[in-house]
Design goal:
The protein has about 180 residues and is mostly helical. The chain has 8 helices and no strands. The longest helix is centred in the middle third of the chain and has 25 residues.
């Protein structure tokens, strides 16, 4: 086992232990459930488009970038095919997953993309979305379905996807 694998397992074990508190476990489950297939973030973008008519197009393009980050992570998962953490790391996961591959975390990809994209649209979004996105990322460790490196890679993929599309999101022609 490499040093990185060892560190991944130790960090996961420590965060997974937080799930023994039923309140923490309930919050982590709720975040994980709401983030399935990027639902929370896609819904937030559509709500932003409905409420903020002046920037409807930007909200919709930000939502598209969030969806693109999620889809990109799904594509990488199919190539990398890293198995999810096993029961040897502290028992069964606290949630069921849509797939059996963990790298990168799609929850983290869509959360980070939303934090970058929606944070650029509303001052409140810049204060509210990043902490919620971070909590979403940590929840995947607490429920025991991702290694920290899965979450870090997913968050990087999501942030880069949204950042690359920032000009397009703002109404520019490039994507």
């Amino acid at each position: 086992m490499s040093h990185m694998d060892d560190m991944d397992r130790r960090l996961l074990s420590a965060l997974r232990d937080c799930g023994t508190d039923r309140r923490v476990a309930a919050a982590a489950r709720a975040l994980s459930w709401s983030g399935e297939h990027g639902a929370l973030w896609l819904g937030a973008g559509l709500l932003g488009a409905a409420v903020d008519r002046q920037r409807r197009g930007a909200w919709l393009r930000g939502t598209a970038l969030t969806a693109a980050a999620h889809l990109a992570s799904m594509g990488v998962k199919r190539v990398v095919r890293r198995p999810r953490p096993g029961a040897e790391l502290g028992g069964e996961p606290l949630v069921r997953t849509a797939g059996r591959h963990s790298f990168p975390s799609s929850h983290a990809a869509s959360a980070a993309a939303a934090a970058v994209a929606y944070g650029a649209l509303r001052p409140a979004g810049a204060r509210l979305v990043p902490p919620l996105a971070a909590a979403m990322c940590v929840s995947r460790l607490v429920v025991g379905v991702h290694y920290p490196s899965d979450v870090a890679a997913g968050a990087a993929l999501g942030a880069v996807t949204a950042r690359l599309g920032a000009h397009w999101m703002a109404g520019g022609a490039r994507w």
